[in-house]
């Protein structure tokens, strides 16, 4: 790893180290080779670690990729009600909903099927259901919409909304 540092920065850094540690440990020559003190050599570079000891990890839920000849075919052939998440990859609240949908999908796996539709890849489906805000969720029962809502929700709020929608008879 190459580091470009001015002499003034080095002198400032050396003074700060002398004050904090009580000794001067930066050494540099006319050829500008540097030896950083041990405290600075331990600094980590690169991407931060995702795992931290106090952080709880949720079980990984793999999406089941299926191919259908049409969206209507998917809705008609589903043996359970379908929750459709209309999203976009650039949408912050949509990204927030990814782990929420994974959790809800595993919690309600016997009651509902979760499907994600990228509105940028499938604009005709988004237009058909007049998707104007993201994320938009539509619950389909027997191939027809029975509930619609927009915006990010917590897992508990989403589960409550789904269970309420499924209890209401059409």
From TrEMBL:
Residues 46-167 form the Thioredoxin domain. It comes from the Eukaryota. One of its GO terms (cellular component) is cytoplasm. Keywords: Disulfide bond, Electron transport, Redox-active center, Transit peptide, Transport. Pfam families: Thioredoxin. GO terms for molecular function: protein-disulfide reductase activity. InterPro entries: Thioredoxin, Thioredoxin-like_sf, Thioredoxin_CS, Thioredoxin_domain. CDD domains: TRX_family (cd02947). PROSITE patterns: THIOREDOXIN_1, THIOREDOXIN_2. This is Thioredoxin Y1, chloroplastic-like. It comes from Nelumbo nucifera (Sacred lotus). The gene is LOC104586224.
């Amino acid at each position: 790893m190459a580091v470009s540092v001015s002499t003034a920065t080095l002198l400032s850094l050396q003074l700060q180290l002398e004050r904090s540690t009580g000794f001067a440990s930066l050494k540099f020559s006319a050829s500008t080779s540097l030896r950083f003190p041990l405290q600075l050599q331990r600094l980590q570079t690169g991407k931060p670690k995702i795992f931290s000891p106090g952080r709880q990890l949720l079980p990984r839920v793999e999406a089941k990729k299926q191919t259908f000849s049409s969206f209507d075919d998917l809705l008609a052939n589903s043996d359970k009600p379908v929750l459709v998440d209309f999203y976009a990859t650039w949408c912050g609240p949509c990204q927030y909903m990814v782990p929420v949908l994974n959790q809800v999908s595993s919690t309600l796996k016997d009651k509902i099927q979760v499907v994600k539709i990228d509105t940028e890849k499938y604009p005709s489906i988004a237009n058909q259901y007049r998707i104007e805000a993201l994320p938009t969720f539509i619950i389909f029962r027997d191939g027809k919409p029975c509930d619609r809502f927009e915006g990010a929700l917590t897992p508990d709020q989403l589960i409550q909304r789904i269970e309420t929608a499924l209890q209401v008879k059409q």
